[in-house]
Amino acid sequence: MMRNRTITALLALGLTGATAAYSQELVLTLDECLDMASEHDPYLVNSRLDVQAAIYQKQEAAAEYFPSVSLNAIGFKAFDPLLHLTLDDVLGHSDAANELKNQIHQTAPLYGIPTDFQALSRGYGAVLSLSQPVYAGGRIVNGNRLARLGVEAARLQQELQEKQTASQVEEKYWQVVSLEEKRKTVDMAVATLDTLLRDVTQAREAGILTETELLQVRLERNRLRSDLVRLRGGLRLAKMDLFNVMGLGYSSTLAGSYDAEGKRLPFIDDIRLDSGMEDMQDPGIYHRPEEEIATSSEESRLLALSVESKKLQKKMTVGEALPTVGVGASYGYGDYIGAPGLNGMVYAMVKVPMTEWGKTSRKIRRSDIELRKALNEQEYLDEQLVLRTRQRWEEVVTAWDRIQIGEESVDFARSELKHCSWGFDAGLNTLSEVLQAQTALRQAEDALIDDRIAYVKAVREYLR
């Protein structure tokens, strides 16, 4: 018997050690979850890439200010000479010309002089060219301004995506916290019923209580245990949803699993979230003027950028109807007619559109309409942003007031349960009344958890 007890003790120690090896509790704060999600959310990663692309586009637009240099080379071999001149082409067909041509045909061969000229049967050349725009109707300047607006707009879109990602992560985060807190509430209720069950069992054995009353406690205890099982399952699913967004690896079994680097992943039940709800403060410290919040928001700044971009696009359209002035120079080497050599030139170019004004004038009118639409949208949405700010603040105040009421309700429910328990011990209250009081306390505590989480979410949404 002693030998069996020793083996059992060793096995228990071994299992305890194995469980401890697997169970390494990981506590995560909301900020840590947000940081992890910021590195893994594909939409946020893409928004950063959009900013980089906008910066490159700005650099492309800036290159229009500088001269463009090109090197062109050509070489050819024609089946027949591209240039072929005879005496007929030079002298014509008059009587005098015919007599002169006869004399040339008789005399030229004596001296080895050809009577026709052929050229451009083959050739090659290379030219280095430089061109500099001097004036392009303001399109270069306005194009660079648009590119700068594009960078700012991309950064604002990134900030909006960061807020959207944070909002999604926080929603999932507080869902997990809510389930964790409610599981604690059920755990405490089960522990209380375990104590009550022992007392009722002893009272039943003493003949003080009936079998029906004992069954009532057992049924209530089993109902709570069933709720606890559902909460644990829901908590795991909520954690999986959150951790997938964060890019956090985890193991869904106590046996454990490993990542690509061979590192043991934490067991999902050992990953706990730090709610930080103990530091809730009066909402008055968070209040800011509504117009200040609305005008400083990314949405308001994007609206202003939209209006500014419409104005610049109109100027770009006007520039299409204005003259274009440019200068340039070229220098190169070539051999096309058997006389190789270097040559160069400088030039100036003026392009005045003559027939585009009718088309451009209609484009300008269309740009005016787009600008008016952007101004109307800015005016309307600025009012909506102020309204949204007011709504967010009302949500904060309402959630705070609900917390005050919820705390009073929990105190009342605890007091009721205490009095019912004392009355039950004194024979003044029934067991059903005790169970009802405990159920009321659990419901009040669950409601208070929801109100506290709603307040924290409302404050963060308001500050965001």
Q: Which secondary structure elements does this structure contain, and how are they paired or packed?
A:
Blueprint: H1 2-22, E1 26-28, H2 30-40, H3 42-62, E2 68-77, E3 83-85, H4 87-91, H5 95-107, E4 117-119, E5 122-135, H6 139-205, H7 211-246, E6 271-273, H8 290-296, H9 298-319, E7 324-335, E8 341-351, H10 357-425, H11 431-463
Describe this structure in words.
There is one protein chain. The protein has 464 residues and is of the alpha+beta class. It has eleven helices and eight strands. The strands form three sheets. A four-stranded antiparallel beta sheet has the order 2-5-7-8, with no helix packed on it. Strands 1-6 form a two-stranded parallel ribbon. β7 (324-335) and β8 form a beta hairpin. α2 crosses α6 (139-205). The two termini are 67 Å apart. The relative contact order is 0.11. Residues 1-23 have low confidence and may be disordered.
